[in-house]
Specification:
The chain is an alpha+beta fold. The protein has a 5-stranded mixed sheet with strand order 1-2-3-5-4. Helix 2 runs antiparallel to helix 5 (114-124). A hairpin with a 3-residue loop joins strand 4 (128-134) and strand 5 (138-146). It is built from 5 helices and 5 strands. It has helices at 2-5, 27-43, 62-66, 91-94, 114-124, and strands spanning 10-15, 49-60, 75-84, 128-134, 138-146. The model is unreliable at 151-156 (pLDDT under 50).
């Protein structure tokens, strides 16, 4: 989908782990977050460049989690890395990039909701997102999401046939 969506001058390179890595969450929300990060990367490369996507499995131990570098609990995580060779993010903007409605785009060219939505999804799923950027070199987003321990033997939870009733007022 990215190849059809992004500027044709952008070369997409990927390196995904072969074995499935399962996380618990809404797949469409996760896909939307990945698209947001990739579209932002493409905006930073109007004349083309490279977009790298990779996944991996990492383990965060207690020492790392207690070091102050992370707010996560020790355990196994899926790491998604999205890197670009774009213009980079100005140092004065770095602390604001996840704020709702913050944008560096011209008026009418962006809402500033993309990175805020990504941040919200990552936090909702008890993950973390780190950003590294250098002007003129590019930006790298590292998303960590906890690997699910849920039993994957059943595809769907058992649906209840009980009719749910209630009372209330609907306002339109």
């Amino acid at each position: 989908m990215l190849e059809r969506t992004l500027n044709k001058k952008i070369v997409i390179k990927s390196n995904f782990v072969e074995s499935p890595l399962h996380i618990q969450g809404d797949s469409s929300l996760i896909q939307s977050s990945i698209m947001n990060l990739c579209i932002n990367a493409s905006h930073a490369m109007p004349d083309g460049g490279n977009l790298y996507l990779s996944t991996g499995k990492i383990f965060l131990d207690k020492n790392y989690c207690d070091s102050g570098f992370s707010e996560l609990e020790p355990g196994h995580y899926v790491e998604l890395i999205i890197e670009d060779t774009g213009s980079g993010i100005a140092p004065e903007d770095m602390e604001k990039i996840f704020d709702p409605f913050f944008t560096t785009k011209e008026r009418g060219k962006g809402t500033g909701l993309g990175l805020s939505a990504v941040y919200g999804m990552v936090r909702q799923y008890k993950g973390e997102i780190k950003v590294y950027s250098e002007l003129g070199v590019g930006t790298s987003f590292h998303v960590l999401l906890p690997i699910s321990d849920a039993d994957r033997s059943s595809k769907r939870p058992q649906e209840s046939t009980e009719l749910i009733k209630g009372r209330g007022t609907i306002l339109i």
